Amino acid sequence: MSFFKNIFGNSDESEEQSKMNWSRLTSISQLDDIISLSNEKPIVIFKHSTRCIISRMALKQFEKEFDLLDKITPYFLDLLEHRDISNEIAQRFGVMHQSPQLLLIENGASSYNASHENISAITLKNKI
After folding, report:
1. pTM of the model
2. The CATH number of 19-127 is which of 2.170.130.20, 3.40.50.150, 3.40.30.10, 3.40.50.720?
């Protein structure tokens, strides 16, 4: 039973609080700001599908490992609500769409990306 709780969660358990202070990515125009801001501080974009268990697991693991808030600015993209933004990200940064997907934006370009089980805050830390 605990296996299923780990995968699907349990509404009776208190959720572990996220260390993330996500900025919601909700408009294509924000990408211009992200590009500009990435010249001063690295930006991370986490592309998440709210209907996908793999995406949910990757997000929870990333949030659990994350300790870079002083070094990067994290953005969260809900793919189901904003697929148009995901398409624009793929075009602007030359990165094929994946879900879930993590992109590191530095100096206006994607310097690193990972998807699915390869998403790791520990690996990200080594890239900065």
Report:
1. 0.83
2. 3.40.30.10
